[in-house]
Amino acid sequence: MKISPLQTARLQYAPKLPGMLRHGISEICVKEGEATASVADQEKIAALFPNTYGKKEITFEKGENTSEAKKQVVGVILSGGQAPGGHNVVCGLYDALKATNKENVLYGFKGGPSGLLEDDYLVFDDEYIDQFRNTGGFDIIGSGRTKLETEEQFAVAAEVCKKHGITAIVIIGGDDSNTNAAVLAEYFAAHETGVQVIGCPKTIDGDLKNEDIECSFGFDTATKTYSELIGNIERDANSAKKYWHFVKVMGRSASHVALECALETQPNICLVSEEVAEKKMSLAQIADYIADSVANRAAKGMNFGVAIIPEGVVEFVPEFSALIKEINEMLAGAKADEFNALTSWKDKYAFIENGLSKESFGVFATLPETVQQQLFLERDPHGNVQVSLIESEKLFSALVKANLDERKKNGTYKGKFSALHHFFGYEGRCAFPSNFDADYCYSLGYNAFMLIQYGYNGYLSKISNLSKPAEEWIAGGMPITKMMNMERRHGEDKPVIRKALVELDGAPFKYFEAHRESWAVDTCYTYPGAIQYYGPDEVCNITTRTLALEKGV
Ligand code: FBP
Fold first, then answer.
1. Of 252, 314, 315, which is best to mutate to test ligand 1, by the most ligand atoms within 8 angstroms of its C-beta?
2. Which residue has a Cα nearest atom 6 of ligand 1?
3. Which of 302, 439, 509, 531 is the most buried (most CB within 10 A)?
């Protein structure tokens, strides 16, 4: 197979480990910290996780390795959406496992959690794994979104582990997948299977973070990739001076990705879903806010601009979320078959008009037809609307156009408005990991094996102090139950890892808030350029603006 010169060079890159993991396996010992409690609903979570709740946080440090010298057979699973660096988690895990004992074995379950249930796997060896070092993607074993959540599934998983003599499973996933890791860990402990479960924090969305997990892997590379593209678009806009670009970026519910891209590129507009919710902004108010920027810039002779739209924003607009809720109800019951049996959009539209409340239909009727239809696309396995499929960039540009047409009629706006649309999501999820993600991921995988070796179960691999050079990173583990609270899911109270949305009193948002007014009217674009893998530290080893602001560096 022909590979590119960059890939050839990246295969040779040696990812950096935290200083405390560099001494060699025989010199890594554990320092136990405080016992933990869940972030909320302590009694309920403790009752649901009697075997894995309240365990101590731990860090690794230099010292005599006192772990049990037993043969380890580990299974690894990539779960959910791709995120740059996933391959390096597997490589770090493999290298630590083999450095500890050449007889240790690493199984890769294919296609996500379903690979474990279907016993579909490969066994890693040097030749296979070496092709994937420092590369993007999850194609090393594939990924999937099957939820591991029922007793039946856990029993099958236990059987498969028993069949192969598996001693531990590593689940590389986001908040939902790591919630499932915690439940699986509890099941394995309760049934005395002897199998440990360790999670690794993955997701480009950046919403798996808390006081222990400073960021999920993949966020750095994905946001740098989108920021490069947005910067290029800004420069094009500033050169041609004739288009308004509406750029939707991935990130699901949270706006961490949009905010980071805005901090990197200083566009005219960036919506932040969490603020939209806090201020209970309507679609019309949002359109008015963007139209103000268009009109103010037009008054200065600038009929161009760039607006960043987080992919989940529509769910945060109260009238829109009410509409989605009603549609979900409509599609959940027996009426779903009736709806799906209708063949023409005209008939479906009449059905919708009948089924929705007057208010929600009023909102629905103002949407462009393409967006109306996108609201009826298939839900994901968790029952969520697939926000990546709703063209909110087109929705907002249409609403802004209508707003500007009104302003034209009353003589308050005389500019030209020509909009172009972009969606940056899948473009960033499989990029070659930045040096940060390559190092962070390799460390997460290596560290996951240390947790296994020392017998921990239901822990998340934790690398912290990430705004500092890798030498100063801190490696350890945190019981997953510490990050959990109870939330209402599908009409039931469930223990889940609390999702981190953008904090409106956090440093990244505060910085954005302090600057956005001038960005909206003037042209303050910054052009981050492509990710650099080689060269001076200040271009190839820089962290995200979000992390830098959060840590005050
Ligand atoms: P994870 O939460 O699994 O990391 O996935 C994140 C994400 O990339 C979201 O940003 C996006 O909404 C979604 O996946 C798209 O899912 P799919 O890959 O199934 O189209």
1. 252
2. 81
3. 439
pLDDT in tens, 315-347: 899 999 899 888 888 877 677 788 888 899 999
Of the candidates 95, 175, 176, 205, the residue annotated as catalytic is: 205
Domain assignment present for residue 183? The answer is: yes
Let me know whether 337 and 458 are in one domain: no
CATH of the domain at 265: 3.40.50.460
Which band of pLDDT confidence, cut at 50, 70 and 90, is reported for residue 383?
A: low
The CA 47 to ligand 1 mean position distance, Å, reads: 32
Q: Supply the pLDDT for residue 71.
A: 94
Q: Which of 277-281, 305-309, 371-375, 512-516 has the lowest mean pLDDT?
A: 371-375
Copy the structure tokens of residue 17.
Answer: 């480990």
The pLDDT > 90 percentage for the chain reads 86
pTM (2 d.p.)? 0.94
User: Both 492 and 517 in a single domain?
Assistant: no
Residue 220 designated active-site:
no
Most distant CA atoms of the chain, gap in Å = 80
| 325 lies in some domain | yes
169-178, 261-270, 375-384, 472-481: least confidently modelled range: 375-384
Distance 387 CA to ligand 1 centre (A): 9
For residue 257, the ligand 1 atom closest to its alpha carbon is 10
Question: Does 392 fall in a domain?
Answer: yes
Residues 114 and 173 in one domain: yes
Q: Are 87 and 64 in contact (CB under 8 A)?
A: no
Three-state secondary structure call for residue 419: strand
Ligand 1 centroid to residue 383 C-alpha, Å: 14
Q: ∠ at Cα 109 (106, 111), nearest 5°? A: 145
- Whether residue 178 is contained in a domain is answered as yes
- Domain span at 453: 5-218+433-497
CATH of residue 11's domain is: 3.40.50.450
Beta bridge partners, 199, equal: 171, 460
Predicted local confidence at residue 407, as pLDDT: 97
- Tokens representing 69? 């010298």
Give backbone dihedrals phi and psi of 58, rounded to 5 degrees, phi first: -140, 155
Same domain, 379 and 527: yes
Residues 418, 491 within the same domain: no
Query: Vertex 50, ends 46 and 53: CA angle to 5°?
Result: 55
Atom of ligand 1 nearest to the CA of 312: 12
- Residue 243 sits in the same domain as residue 163: no
Residues 401, 350, single domain; the answer is: yes
Ligand 1 center to 256 CA (angstroms): 14
- Residue of the nearest CA to atom 20 in ligand 1? 388
For the chain, what is the mean pLDDT? Answer: 94
Strand order in the sheet with 269-270: 269-270, 305-310, 244-249, 419-424
Q: Whose CA is nearest to atom 7 of ligand 1?
A: 81
Residue of 250, 309, 496 to mutate, ligand 1, most atoms within 8 A of C-beta? 250
| Residues near ligand 1 (Cβ within 6 A) | 80-81, 83, 174, 203-205, 250-252, 311, 387-388, 429
Q: Identify the burial level of 487 via C-beta atoms within 10 angstroms of its C-beta, where 0-12 means exposed, 13-18 middle and 19 or more buried.
A: middle
Å from CA of 271 to ligand 1 middle? 20
Task: Please count the structural domains in the chain.
Answer: 2
